[in-house]
């Protein structure tokens, strides 16, 4: 009989802990990158003017190449919104020298809108260090 009473008491205590856990505030943690993520990264068009958001992950040529790529993508976005004409050329080169083979792939794109260049300036820049992604928001001049 005493074993049944202890089991009932233990069950009752467990129910209280479960109910207490359901009513306590959420303790789900937010990663540092999410808590510091600027609003313009997810909603770039809340900014005034014609904007383009560019992003680039880690680049094998380093941080400057990562930044250049993010800026180019932001410019591409602005150009698309202006009715851009894009001319592209891809060149692939392979060479063999002394038993070593190398490959090189170049992409060149020229963007014009009614014969004029697309011009913009950087409004915001943010680097998500956890994901190593650089975001750049540019605004057309």
Model description:
By secondary structure, the protein is an alpha+beta fold. The chain has a domain at 49-89 and 105-141. The chain contains four helices and five strands, in the order αααβαββββ. It has helices spanning 2-23, 32-35, 39-42, 63-81, and strands spanning 51-56, 85-97, 100-112, 120-128, 133-140. It has a three-stranded antiparallel beta sheet. A two-stranded antiparallel ribbon has the order 2-3. The protein is elongated and about 95 Å long. The protein starts with a helix and ends with a strand. Mean pLDDT is 74; it is low at 24-33.
Salient structural properties:
141 residues; alpha+beta; three-stranded antiparallel beta sheet; two-stranded antiparallel sheet; elongated; LPP20 lipoprotein
In short:
This protein has 141 residues and is α+β, with helices and mostly antiparallel strands. It is 35% helix and 35% strand.
Can you lay out the helices and strands and say which pair or pack?
Elements lengths: L1 H22 L8 H4 L3 H4 L8 E6 L6 H19 L3 E13 L2 E13 L7 E9 L4 E8 L1
Antiparallel strand pairs: 1-5, 2-3, 4-5
Sequence of secondary-structure elements? HHHEHEEEE
**Helix vs. strand class:** alpha+beta
How are the strands ordered across the major sheet? 1-5-4
Shape: elongated
Protein name: LPP20 lipoprotein
Organism: Marinospirillum alkaliphilum DSM 21637
């Amino acid at each position: 009989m005493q074993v049944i009473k202890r089991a009932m008491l233990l069950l009752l205590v467990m129910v209280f802990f479960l109910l207490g856990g359901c009513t306590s505030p959420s303790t789900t943690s937010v990663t540092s990158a999410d808590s510091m993520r600027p609003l313009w990264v997810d909603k770039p068009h809340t900014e005034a003017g014609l904007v383009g958001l560019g992003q680039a992950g880690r680049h094998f040529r380093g941080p400057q190449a990562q930044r250049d790529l993010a800026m180019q993508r932001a410019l591409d976005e602005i150009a698309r919104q202006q009715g851009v004409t894009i001319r592209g050329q891809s060149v692939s080169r392979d060479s063999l020298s002394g038993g070593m083979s190398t490959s090189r792939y170049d992409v060149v794109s020229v963007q014009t809108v009614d014969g004029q260049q697309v011009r913009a300036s950087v409004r915001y820049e943010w680097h998500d260090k956890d994901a190593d992604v650089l975001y750049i928001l540019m605004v057309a001049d």
